[in-house]
Design goal:
It contains 22 helices and 20 strands. By secondary structure, it is an alpha/beta fold. A six-stranded parallel beta sheet has the order 3-2-4-5-7-6, sandwiched between helices. The radius of gyration is 25 Å and the shape is globular.
Length: 589
Amino acid sequence: MTLASTPIQKGHSDDENPCWINGAEALMDSLRLHGVEVIFGYPGGAILPIYDAVHKAEKEGWLKHYMVRHEQGGSHAADGYARATGKVGVCFGTSGPGATNLVTGIATAQMDSVPLVVVTGQVPRPAIGTDAFQETDIFGITLPIVKHSWVIRTPSDIARVVSQAFFVASSGRPGPVLIDIPKDVGQEFFSYKKVLPRETIPKGFKRLGEINDEDVTKVVELIKNSQKPLLYVGGGAIASGAHEQLKTLSRNFQIPVTTTLMGKGIYDERDDLSVGMLGMHGTAYANFAVTECDLLIAVGARFDDRVTGKLDTFAPSAKVIHIDIDPAEVNKNRHVDVAIVSDVSEALSKINVIYKNNPSESKTKNWLDKINFWKNKHPLFSPPKDGEIYPQEVLIKIRECAPDSFITTDVGQHQMWAAQYLRNGPRKWISSAGLGTMGFGLPAAMGVKAAYPNSEVICIAGDASILMNIQELGTLSQYGLNVKIIIVNNRWQGMVRQWQESFYDERYSASDMSCGEPDFIKLSEAFGVKGILITERDQLDNGIKSALDFKGPVLVNVRVRRGENCYPMVPPGKSNAQMVGYENCENIA
């Protein structure tokens, strides 16, 4: 039986007629109707009525709730769940500090366009505005970092608001939404009537118009006439599920593909047409390609500063096509010649249909030969097998041992090395790109594992980042989440140190993590998680393989060279062709 068809206090109902339940039970039944099976959260006073309904939902068997150790961990876990599945992630937090602890996770999802429904408890309605215990205006605090938000004033609004919340979070450009529910609203009984998914549309919502066929024709003509085209693909293509359409487009016209950090996984990086990631720590050949291309086809990308470098030198000689679902991104940072505001997969499909009906011979052979020359002359660094372990070796070993795993990362040098060296399938690369949130990787991995319990999930962490949310080892232990955490440990805030070395005359202010570093193995074992320490190269292969083979969560602490920098690197204020950190790069573009 569902909550909605169970007599709760008085009265009786069936699936066609309203029933008499309280606001918390109405919330849970509305979430059930929207396909929610997993929630991440942490209880507290103002949200206790909702957690009482969570208890009933778990007893009924349709819900699995994961109690995290910190609300930020809950929001990141819901984020990881959403990125891996394409569904809306859901997390709960109580009022006051519980709600404010969610803010970083909400902002992370907003920057990377991840659909979340965040539910917060609030003090009772009569206490709102009185500075009551654990009262904060989370509605006001989060206004700049959500797509929309609601404060529920009457329980009869809950079903409608939940339906609208899922619609807003997942439609158009995805993003987080917030529902704030006062405690007494959760306790109040009322006559509940279901609202089904997409049954109610928020006021002011505008559907995208039809794709202009003339614009599609212009795009095809530009591609046909181009001799040096480049596909520049971002996270919007992944959100749209446009993997097959992109592959077809690239192969039809023989166009090389470069991706942003958010776009990793949209195209097979082992394919000859892939040039990997571009931007600040992108491959040399991707950055040279974007500098010399004559046509840049931006697909679900937003011309972020970490990608473009000095903006007026980004694809300086290229005509630009921009395909994106968000009209606000078009002409925001770069003037474009043709724009298609549309779902990415739909737009690419229309382009492919035109090609199929009127195929043409590609003009890109010389262009591809030049890119292959760059690939051969300037490959990614291949670490030597002497001295201390190179951090790049760790990523190469993970690539060899777990080629099909889901990868989550924290933020820093290890993140960039992972982006450079790992090859990920669709929705299997999960990393905080826009906000750059340290501490994201471990809880995000929990969310992925909750979604795909039979898949390999690996978190790549730094020794500084992992400490931001290391308490979530307790969540792994409690629920037996078989996540593998690989710490690339150089005992620094690695990217901060690299910038201090490069741009601040080696003044290493507050970036050395060696003093006060915990014994990660003892710490993980204290949480009930297996720990493995790797300090020598000959331990690397067996250490990582044994971690992957172990039936349970494992933390692997790999000690690597302290002074290794992440290259190539585009210095701030420079063009993408002015990379540093590899031989003769200034003479090639």
